[in-house]
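[[Sequence with tokens]]
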Amino acid sequence: MYKLLLCWRYLRTRYIALASIISVMLGVATMIVVNSVMEGFTAEMQKRIHGIVSDVVFEARSLDGMPDAQWHEHRIRQVVGEEIEGMSSTVVVPAMLSFQHGGNWLTRQVQLIGIDETTQSLVSDFSKYLQHPENRRTMSFQLREGGYDVQDYQSDGEAPPRTQMTEAGWAHRRRMTRLKNFQERMNPASTEKPKPPEALSPSADPFAAHPLTGPEEDKARFDPENEQHTGAVLGIAMISFRTPEGEDKFLALPGDDVKLTFPTAGQPPKVVSDNFTIVDFYESKMSEYDASFVFVPIRKLQELRGMIDPTTGVAMVNAIQIKLKPGADGNLVRDKLRAAFPPELYGVYTWRDKQGPLLAAVNMEITILNVLLFLIIAVAGFGILAIFFMIVVEKTRDIGILKSLGASSRSVMGIFLGYGFSLGAVGAGVGLALGLLMVRYINEFAALIGRITGRPVFDPSIYYFYKIPTVVLPGTVMWIVAGALLIAVAASILPARRAARLHPVEALRYE
């Protein structure tokens, strides 16, 4: 009991130990906050990655794809059918996207992905990131009459309203078509190409005696005010930009038309273009995806690329997305499929394999940050070491008296080890409470610092998040607190051993 009383007395009266307590407290709080924020960003990143990439991807190594997707799906089920919950075929090809804004043509390099809207949502979270509530329930490549989200539904109401989305849909398409027709009527010269003089005579017109038929006639009769081209879902970042205030500005809206240009299948590949109508936006909050992905119906893309056998009607695909049952081992499924199919023709990857370098880089950053931040607690440990040596020298007479009254060397050593544990416990406890409090109100703290400094701590225009994501892992918190206690106790071992070795006669000789 007297050992606890001495520890409590030293803890209350030795204010020099307050520096060590503060060091431990700051170190623990900082590590909890940093780990929670990093885990939050990592969890959000993995959620977004997994949202578009299914559990396992079976893909052809050739850009031309693999023939007969149904045969491949049947063969995959023969190998790992008991682990599969669903499958969906896709066609992926690099492409160029062009659209008009303010009379100027804007071009983007994109990744064009053909999907089956009836099965894609079964293997990924694709539909969850669309901007129309009906598309989130049942995906469709048909333009909606209206009802697109005016508020970013993923922001929990914290984002500024997207006022331009109010008229998105058929209302916007009709308005823009009427405006274009009006401009053409008012200034027809700006929309007609100059013709040579001989082309003005009826006899020189090759189409005068031959009316349009077939596809040309259908194209001429296309009414953009009441009809749409093949639907396309665009990544929201390629068609919009975010202001420093966090407001989204759109260069095009659902209802506008875009032109996609991409290579055909076969050798040598040719270039083909076609018009598409924007029917929705895809917003995963991953800039790599939102700024490059364009989704179109897989059948239309297969037709345009020449991936359908005209005699059998069998189509080619580039990849098959595989959704596994809960609890299934993706690595085991991957290895079985790799053994069943020739590796020179097919590649099989889990979603983690597809983003391996990115995930490895994030994990390395977390490890390095933890090592650097743990040095803060190590500094506190050296402070405890120095303070304890000072206490041993100062309390030499007290130690001699305790030993002369019968206290053993182990008891004296226990006093200083208990004191070191007390310093670590108090510092780690206060740091734990402070760290969890900061994590709970981190966005409020960030806003306060931004108001004080005049510069935002967290810029939503960079991260496309409206608030800092955090995830508190109990296991991580436990090892941070345990590490702080271990350093505090380890720093008190040497002074405790010196105090325990003091002989009572030597300690009291000069008293």
The first helix runs from residue 2 to 13. Residues 193-217 have pLDDT under 50 and may be disordered. The radius of gyration is 34 Å.
